[in-house]
Amino acid sequence: MTKRKTVLEREIEALSRVNKFIGSISNLHRLLDLIMKESKRIMKAEASSLMLYDPKSKKLFFEVALGKKGKKVKKIRLKVGQGIAGTAAKMDKVLNIPDVTKDPHFYKEADSRSGFKTKSILTVPLKRKGKLLGVLEVLNKKNGRPFDKQDVRLIQIIAGQAAVAIENAQLYLANLRAERLAAVGQTITSLSHYIKNLLTGIEMGKETVHLGLEDREQETFATGWRMVDKNMEKVSNLVLNMLNYSKPRKPLYQLANLNEIVKQVVASQEEHAKRENARLLTNLDHHLDRVLIDTSGIERVLLNLVGNSLDALKGRGGKVEITTHLEKKKKLFRIIVSDTGCGIPKEQIKEIFNFFYSTKGSKGTGIGLAVTEKIVKEQKGKIKVTSEVGKGTTFTITLPWH
Asked: For residue 10, is pLDDT > 70?
């Protein structure tokens, strides 16, 4: 039982870490480099590499090659069917070769050029919807033993997510290169990369839930469910933001307790705060327990701002504080959301309220702040931002008090 639990822990760790990479990094080479480092680490291998397939030349080339001699093999090109990697691509199957000297497909030229001595190889083709994208391989287990069935399962999980990342990036880049992309096409392109990342997270969470059910491991099940729940919440926020932005909307004013709305938003973001190692603080003016506001609009504004502030902490800890303040003589009140995160460069501040402008790369949509500004203006209010790189950002919303 202990051995099986260890295997599950390795699988969950690999899924979680690769999912984090995919969700936070838009540069494909950097993403694949991190995935291969994770593969090398979790498989306890001396080296690892990822080859991409070029359909024009019908050859495989090294995109990432990790290990002491990795740089020397990057000029090598393999035909499909050549070498163990090319054979795995042609046969469309995982190849686990415990002793390469006994395999007729072993391509000795790679070792000859690099000076690396290959003893064993575990390689798996990367495919999506029947299309060959590349090949992932790890070489030489550090303990000298051959790769086992557990290693095969792990590399298949990692390869599956690497294939999704490659496909997403290729589709995204292909769309960006299209000079005559229509406005509707641009919208789809901007959202598709983000949505596919969310779907990847949901798929990985679902896989983890199944593992927990199969092995009756409650913690495994709970981990998977949290992954699904987190990404489903992002899908819900995306849909609500799109609906709020897509059509003119008259505020639905009602007497409400602003401070209670703040508390409800804070409670809903506690799980997000834990993931970022953050503290959520409030400083609430008791005079705002009865105020005429559009409650759903204010809630959407707070969810967007608090969520962005937590993302800006990037898991390094810190705090996000929500302040409410009534200025009775001026007949206005303020909602202030401040964080101690990464900050926004001066040249980007003017752009952040533009639709589809995002400072988060593939992790954001560029919709949230545009929606926030729209809602505030609909309620005859103003929103202002001040920020300092490395120290944090403050959003101040000023609204009329009735």
From this structure: no
What is the Cα–Cα distance from 66 to 34, expressed in whole angstroms? 10
Q: Are residues 280 and 211 in the same domain?
A: no
Tell me the CA distances in angstroms from 122 to 111, 147, 377, one per residue in order. Answer: 16, 7, 58
Take residue 353 and report the two structure tokens written for it: 């309220």
| Residue 246: inside a domain | no
Q: What one-character-per-residue DSSP string does 104-164 give?
A: TT--HHHHHHH------EEEEEEEETTEEEEEEEEEEETTSPPP-HHHHHHHHHHHHHHHH
- Model pLDDT for residues 232-288, shown as the tens digit of each residue: 776 766 666 666 555 667 788 889 999 999 998 898 888 888 888 999 999 999 999
pTM for this prediction: 0.45
Tokens of 276: 């970022």
| C-alpha dihedral, 280 to 277 to 391 to 371, nearest 10° | -60
- What is the distance between the alpha carbons of residues 276 and 265, in angstroms, rounded to a whole number? 17
- Interior angle at CA 29, CA 26 and CA 30, nearest 5: 65
Q: Are 47 and 40 in contact (CB under 8 A)?
A: yes
Domain count, the chain: 2
- Token pair for 199: 């779907």
Distances in whole angstroms, Cα of residue 310 to Cα of each of 22, 131, 202, 263, 318 = 19, 38, 21, 16, 9
Q: How many residues does the structure list for the chain? A: 402
Same domain, 105 and 174: yes
How far is residue 344's CA from residue 312's CA, in Å, rounded to a whole number?
9
Inter-CA distances, 91 with 135, 146, 157, 306, 370, Å: 12, 21, 19, 50, 49
> What is the band of 198 on the pLDDT scale with cuts at 50, 70, 90?
low
Confirm whether 87 is domain-assigned: yes
Residue 342 sits in a domain whose CATH number is 3.30.565.10
- The least confident of 64-68, 228-232, 370-374, 392-396 is 228-232
